[in-house]
Amino acid sequence: MGNKGEKTKEKIRQAAYLLFAQKGFKAVTMTDICERTGLSRGGLYRYYSGTEQIFSEILSEEYVIADRIERQESAKTILEDMLEAIRHEIMDKELSLSLAIYEYANLGNEEFFTNINDRAKKRWINLLNYGIETKEFKAVDTEQISDLILYYYQGLRMWSRVISFDEQAAEHYVKSVRQLLFRE
Amino acid sequence: MGNKGEKTKEKIRQAAYLLFAQKGFKAVTMTDICERTGLSRGGLYRYYSGTEQIFSEILSEEYVIADRIERQESAKTILEDMLEAIRHEIMDKELSLSLAIYEYANLGNEEFFTNINDRAKKRWINLLNYGIETKEFKAVDTEQISDLILYYYQGLRMWSRVISFDEQAAEHYVKSVRQLLFRE
Fold first, then answer.
1. Residue B95 has pLDDT above 80, yes or no
2. pTM score, whole prediction
């Protein structure tokens, strides 16, 4: 697929992301996505066979860490960048996909989510191991801390749809992760 | 209301809890609850005006901490008991109310959840302050650590419905909370 095709797919994913965040998974139709993107049905189906394929691609998009470790950037810098991205996500309740994830999971996609979760965990474990190696991080139990980073984040994402957060909830997350990893 | 009335209400809440965990909030009807409890419609409505009232009472049930602090039990013992209860809850995906909470929140009950959340937070802050006073806990930022305890737990509860956990996810939670609070 050419560059233009990739751009159209990106546009489709962005429009669909907002719809899933707003309505959950089940209520979103291909027609909704046509309306948001201005694509014809034929145009949309050329790229995606259904909402399921779009949703699964959105969830598979990942923070790129491996490249930065490869280039031997500082583990602390990589972590701070990720925490900054996460802080923004926590505060942006409109962009939470928690409900859509829930609904999609209930359609029987456990294996899919197990894969996504495993990959996310592996990514964090890699970064933690790298930072421990460079002595930027304390010698923590990397499995334990990556669980905390992931599920604490998910809890905040879910509750950001249920109640209003002030900036503090995100601050506390960042502060806790830092305390667990950095030497005083 | 007499002792028998309280027992019947308890029975209704238990039956309803299982239904909410299974089906979410919206799909559960008073008829479902009649069937599960064996009560007549008249019998059920004598105690509760609708599913909303039952759900809100279930969510308001609380771990009793204040009494134990009053009796000057060890903060460490109280904490360990709570962690043990939480560990069981995390592993029991059938009992997760996350989806029901989500649905109920989307019906516009933000204030209700803000109250529940505030109360839960206050309860944890009280326990943490008490343990810091008795020198059983480290002098942590109690707001920060109670956020972690609450939202990390919620993330685990939500994901326990999405993927299968092994015992480890709950272990990691307990281990992290202990490390944050206990002196080595």
1. no
2. 0.81
